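Reviewer 2 asked us to include a model.

Predict the structure of this chain.
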Amino acid sequence: MIKKVVIILFVFFMLLPANAQQESKKISLKFGKHKDFFRFVFICEDIETTKSVNAKLDNEGTIKLFFPDEFDFEFEGKSLSEKDNIKGIKTEKKDKTLVIKTTLVKEIKISRLDNPPRIILDAFFEEGLKEEILSRGVVLIDAGHGGKDTGLQFKEFNEKDITLHIAKEIATKLTQKGIKVSLIRATDEDMSIQRRIRVEHALKPNIFVSIHVSNKEQFNVYTSSIKKNFIKETPSKILLIENTAVKNFTKKISEKFSEPTYSEKLPLTILKESISPAIMIEIPRRILISDKKYKEKIIDAFVQAIELTIKEKEKEK
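Predicted model (structure tokens):
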């Protein structure tokens, strides 16, 4: 009898730690988007936890929070999975670390309050993104190059000026048709690839079009063979919209021009890191020396292709 009691007690005490381990500590997470910053609020079970958490911002705008233990993070009544998102912002749990992949942030400020025990993390946007985030467009147009980066050149003509002129004209015509448009750059300014990607991530357009000039006498339409980020739409929807855009650009270009049009999938950084359907169009190099009429034909073809793609996307809803 005594032996049985000892065995039962042994099993009971052996199971206690296992059950305790299953009941992981919880932190409730709240999120708000303001004019100049994102606010993340972590509501903890005790003050000791709030004092033990550290936060770090890396060069790519990613926030890392280091916790003293492994926690179950709850957002809007649901537990965050290992790879999840908060209102479109990707998150990843790694042991005692929570990674928030914003790509938009230039500075973070953290404060700790006692009643209830909570951590407030304010993540401030990079300068220049504030207004852009508030004026989202259905279409985002990227005029290739800019500033010191002139792109292709022929005599006094260069790619950066041509792409900017075409982007602004397309934006004007689409706006007149009631379609909201945003421009990556509206002036001749230096703009890194990563900066363009951060703007695209902030605006989350329905379609992202990057315009360049080819070094050959042909049109090239590119989409990425790889996609690193899927937030705004499911992967299948993004790929479907990209394929639709390629089809529409190819069709409208062939109706107006004799130059050949080639489409290809390439893992170009600006395309593969976009979170929206994204394409890159290269215009034949004769655009550098062409007259106004040729430029207007290109603008009209691109406007028609974008408008058709937006309409087809709306029909699918």
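The two ends are 71 Å apart (CA to CA). The longest strand covers residues 25-33. We have added this to the supplementary material.
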